[in-house]
Amino acid sequence: MDFFPVVNPATGETVRTYPAMPMEEAHAAIEQAHAAFLGWRRTSFADRARLMRAAAARFRERKDALAALMTVEMGKTVREGGEEVEKCALGCEYFADRAERLLAPEPVDADDFRASGGAANERAYVTANPLGVVLALMPWNFPLWQAVRFLAPGLMAGNACVLKHADNVPGCALALEELFRAAGFPTHLFRAVLVGIPAVEGLITHSRVAAVTLTGSVPAGRSVAGIAGRALKKCVLELGGSDAYVILEDADLDLAAETCARARLLNTGQSCIAAKRFIVPQAVRAEFERRLVEHMREFRAGDPTAPDTRLGPLASRRHRDNLHAQVRASVERGARLMLGGEVPPGPGAFYPPTILADVVPGMVAYTEELFGPVASILPAADEADALRIANDTAFGLGAAVFTRDLTRGERIAAEVLEAGAAFVNTNVRSMPALPFGGIKDSGYGRELSAHGIREFVNLKTVLVKTSG
Q1: By C-alpha distance, which of 177, 195, 197 is closest to 187?
Q2: How far apart are the first and last CA of the chain?
Q3: 327 lies in a domain?
Q4: Which of 405, 431, 436 is nearest to 95 (CA)?
Q5: What is the b/e burial string over 345-359, where b = at least 16 CB atoms within 10 angstroms of the residue's CB?
Q6: What is the pLDDT of residue 228?
Q7: Would residue 291 count as lying in a domain?
Q8: Is 193 in the same domain as 250?
Q9: What pLDDT shows up at residue 1?
Q10: Which residue range is the domain that position 167 belongs to?
C-alpha cells in the first residue's frame, strides 16, 4: 500500500490521502521509541503524571477539531465524537492520578513468606518495571479512546508506545502522536506508523518490540497471537463480541427497552460491547418487542456533522453491505424483520435501525457478530433457557441482565453469564477503573484499571537477605 485514502462515510467522497510509511522508516520509529524509553523508564511518576495531565488538557482544548476529524474519517456523529474526546481526557487523568499507587512495590506478607520457606533474616517484595516498546494494533470504531486505553496506562508505567492504527483513520493516528508531543512527552516516546496490514508481522517480530496489544476481529487476533507466540512476546487481545442482554419476566420493560436501544445504537452499533442479542422469555417477549421498536425508531440516520444527529453512517459502504448481507441471510432462514432492513438510497454508508425477531440457531444473526445498528431478539422459554442461550455463543466480552430483583440479578451477573463484564439493569461500557476484556473468542488479557496497567510490566520478585 503506497497511500491511505480517507473516504468520508457520509458522502462517499475521498477527502484526503496520506502517504504510507516505508518499512525502513517504521522500523526506525521503533528504534527511536526504544531509545526514548531508556530515558523515560527512569523518570518519576510525578513527572509522568504532569505530562499526562497536560495531554488531558490538550484533548479538551482540541475537542471540536478531534470530533470533526473522527466524523470525516469513520462517520462518528460530532456529539459522540465530543464524548469520546472527553473520555480520553478522563482516562489520562485517571492514570496520571493513580499509576504510582497501582504500580507500587508489593511486600510479600511475612507470615506467607515464612510459611513458604523464607528465612527469618530475609524479606521479599514485588516490583512492577516497564517492559519497553509496546506495539498497539488498533481499530477504527473508537479511534481516539481505543488508543488512549493503552497509551495512558502504558506511558504511565514507563513504557514507550508505537501505534499501527486502522487504515481508514490515519489522520486520527497522527493527531494522537502530535497531541502527546505537544503535551511535552519526549518526541519519539509515542509514534504512529502508517503502514498496511502486510507490515504487521515485521513490526511484531522487531527485536525492540517487547509486547503487543490488539483490538480487532477474531481472525486478526488468531494471526497476531500466532506471530507473537512464535516470537515469545506477550499480547493482550480484545476481539469481537456478541453481547447478550437477558430481560427477565420481572424486569422494568421500559427501562430495559430504552437501555437496549441506546446500547445497540451507540456509535451506529459499531462497538464490540454494543448490546447485540436480546434474550427474552415468552411471558414478556411481545411487550418488550413493541417497546424496543418504539425506542429504536426514534433514532434516524442523518448528517453526522449536525449536533442533533443520533445515528451516523457506518464506517464504509463495504461494512454496510456486509451487514445488510447478514440481515438478509437471517431473514431468508426465518428471522422476522420488525424494523428497518433496507439499504437507503444515496452515496453514503447509511443503514437504518433494524430489528430481527425470532432469531434461532442456524441463522447468521444467532452465531455471528452484527457490527452495526441491528438488534436480534432471541426467544426463550424461561429464565433457565434464557441464560443457556446467552452463553451459547463463541464470544464472551460483555453481558447484561434486567430484573427488579437485584439479588437475583447480581447472582446471574457474577456467577452465570460467561463474559469479561456483566452489568445489571444498565448497558455494558468501558471505564478507566474497571478491567476490560473478554473470554472465549473475545480474547484474553485486560485493559484499563489496576489489572490493565499491570499487563505490560515485569512483575519482578526481589528478595533481600537482611543479615549474616
Answers
A1: 177
A2: 64
A3: yes
A4: 431
A5: eeebbbbbbbbbbbb
A6: 98
A7: yes
A8: no
A9: 56
A10: 3-239+442-465
CATH number at residue 452: 3.40.605.10
Task: Output DSSP code: residue 267.
Answer: G
In three-state secondary structure terms, 136 is strand
User: Do the beta carbons of residue 416 and residue 387 sit within 8 Å?
Assistant: yes
Nearest residue to 180 (alpha-carbon basis) of 159, 151, 214: 151
Match 492504527 to its residue by C-alpha cell: 165
281 to 230, 341, 387, 423: CA distances (angstroms): 46, 24, 10, 19
Within 375-466, residue ranges assigned H as helices are 383-391, 406-411, 449-453
| Cβ proximity of 33 and 190 under 8 Å | yes
Residue 325 CA to residue 84 CA, distance in Å, equals 30
The residues of the chain scoring below 70 in pLDDT are 1
pLDDT at 142: 98
Residue 437 lies in a domain: no
- 211 in the same domain as 269: no
140 and 269 share one domain: no
pLDDT of residue 434: 98
* Residue 297 sits in the same domain as residue 218: no
Q: Do 184 and 308 belong together in one domain? A: no
Q: Which residues contact 342 (CB under 8 A, 6 or more apart)?
A: 352
Catalytic (active-site) positions:
238, 272
Residue with cell 422459554: 381
pTM of the model: 0.97
59's enclosing H/E stretch is helix 45-61
How many domains, the chain?
2
Half-sphere exposure of 221 (CA within 13 A, CB side): 19
Residues 249 and 372 in one domain: yes
